[in-house]
Amino acid sequence: MASSLQGQDLAQVGVPVDAHHRPGGNGVGQVLPGVEQRPDRVLAGPNGEFGAEGDIGGAEFLAESPMLARQLVRTAYLGGADRMADDIRYEYKTVQTVRGVDGRVISKMQNDGWELVDQAQGVLRSTLNFRRPKKPLPWLLIGAVAAVLVILAVVIGVASALSGGSTKKDESDKSPAVASEKPSATPTPAPTTAEPAAPDVITPQNNPEFAALLKMDYCDSANLDFATKYAGKTVAFDGSIVNMVHHGSYATRYDILLGPGDKGPNTTVGPAFKYENVNVFDLKLTGKKIPATLRAGDKFHFVAKVGEFNATQCLFFLDPVSTETR
Q1: What integer pLDDT is reported at residue 227 of this predicted model?
Q2: What is the rounded CA–CA span in Å between residue 62 and residue 50?
Q3: Burial of 273 (0-12, 13-18, 19+ CB in 10 A)
Q4: Most CB atoms within 10 A, among 126, 216, 273, 317?
Q5: Cα separation of 274 and 318, whole Å?
Q6: Residue 188 and residue 50: Cα distance in Å, rounded?
Q7: Residue 104 to residues 39, 57, 132, 220, Cα–Cα distance (Å)
Q8: CA–CA separation, 183 vs 18, rounded Å?
Q9: Average pLDDT over residues 42-62
Q10: Taking a C-beta distance cutoff of 8 angstroms, is the pair 296, 244 a contact?
Q11: Chain-wide mean pLDDT for the chain?
Q12: End-to-end CA distance of the chain, in Å?
C-alpha cells in the first residue's frame, strides 16, 4: 500500500517541520545560505535511507531521529495490513468437561472448526475456551432471495385477484338444477390397526435401537436421536462404573460416569452415561452383596430414566431408578 506523509501531516502528529530546507533532488537536501543547519532533523524513505528534506524513495518523511523515521515509514506502509487483520471477527464458546475426557472434547471441537484458546484444569473439571472466525453473511445471495420473494408475492397477489373475479362469475352462472343434486354418500373410513404398546422398561433384548446404541461410539449422532425419541423412558442394562468424583465441594454427592459392559475405566464402546450430583442413597442399591463403598470398576445392573444428551461434551445423562449388584 503506497502512502505519503507531507510536512504538515507530520506536524499534526507532533513532529515539527523545518521550513528552512529545500529539496535537492538526489535524496540529500540543500540548506539555504545564511540559515542555521538543523542536523537533529532527519528525512527517511520507505527503505530506511536518511537525508535532509527531499524526495526519498517516492515519499517524504521528516522526523527527529532515524528511529522515529523508521517507525513512521513502518506505520505508513503497514498500517493498512494491521487494519485488515483487525477486521477478523470471532465467536467464542466455553465448555466444561469432567477430567479424563478433555482430549475427546478438544478433538471433536477442532473437527468442527474451533480453535482451543486456553485450558484451565480444576480438581474435578476442566474449563476449555474455544474460538472460530465468524462466517461472513452472503449479502449477494440474501439480496437475490429477497428479490425472488418480492416477485413471488406480486405474482401470487395478481393470481389471487384474477381467481377471485372468475369465481364470482362462475357462481352467478350456475344453474338452479345443480343445487338440487343429492350429495354423495360419505365414505366409511377404513379401520386403523393399533400399534403394539412399547415395553415399560427398554432393554437390549426388547429394543434393537438400544442394543445397537450400546455398541456405538459415545459421540455418535445415534445418542442424540435415542435421547430425543425416548426422553423420560426407563432403560435397563448391565454396566460398570468408569469414573467417580465428588460433585463440586460436596463430600457425599458424586458425579458418576457409567459404561456398558464389565470393563470399568477401560470401557471404549457405547455411550458415556452419567449420573450427576447424586448420593449413594439415590442409587437405590439392591442385591445380595451390596458394597460398603463404591469405586470405579464396580459392576451393576442399572435401571434409569433417559435424560438429555450433551452433544458438545458427548455425555448421555440418566436419572437412577435402581442399581443391582452382580
Answers
A1: 97
A2: 10
A3: buried
A4: 273
A5: 6
A6: 101
A7: 65, 55, 18, 13
A8: 105
A9: 44
A10: yes
A11: 76
A12: 75
269: Cβ contacts below 8 Å, ≥ 6 apart:
214, 215, 216, 217, 218, 260, 261
Instruction: Tell me the chain's radius of gyration from C-alpha atoms.
Output: 38
Q: Which 8-state DSSP code applies to residue 265?
A: G
The cell for 277 is 450430583
| 93: three-class secondary structure by DSSP | strand
CA dihedral 239, 245, 247, 251 (to 10 degrees): 120
In terms of Cβ atoms closer than 10 Å to its own Cβ (0-12, 13-18, 19+), residue 73 is: buried
Residues 96 and 127: beta-carbon distance below 8 Å: yes
Q: Does the global pTM surpass 0.70?
A: no
Record the cell numbers describing residue 201, joined without a space: 422398561
CA distances from 246 to 20, 128, 251, 296, 320 (A): 79, 20, 6, 13, 17
Length of the chain (residues)? 326
- Cell numbers for 187: 365414505
- Among 244, 248, 242, 218, smallest CA distance to 125 is for 248
Continuous segment of H or E residues that includes residue 8: helix 7-12
Q: Which residues contact 140 (CB under 8 A, 6 or more apart)?
A: none
Cell matching residue 40: 537533529
Tell whether the model's pLDDT for residue 81 goes beyond 80: no
C-alpha cell at 33: 545560505
What is the torsion angle, in degrees rounded to the nearest 10, for the CA atoms of residue 285, residue 288, residue 289 and residue 291? Answer: 10
Rounded to whole angstroms, the Cα distance separating 27 from 59 reads 11
CA 168 to CA 59: how far, in whole Å? Answer: 80
- The whole-number average pLDDT for the span 13-37 is 43
| Confidence at residue 38, expressed as pLDDT on a 0 to 100 scale | 44
Interatomic CA distance for residues 296 and 211, integer angstroms:
24
Digit-coded pLDDT (tens) for 84-142: 555 788 999 999 888 778 888 999 999 999 999 999 888 888 899 999 998 877 778 88
Q: What is the amino acid identity at position 285?
A: L
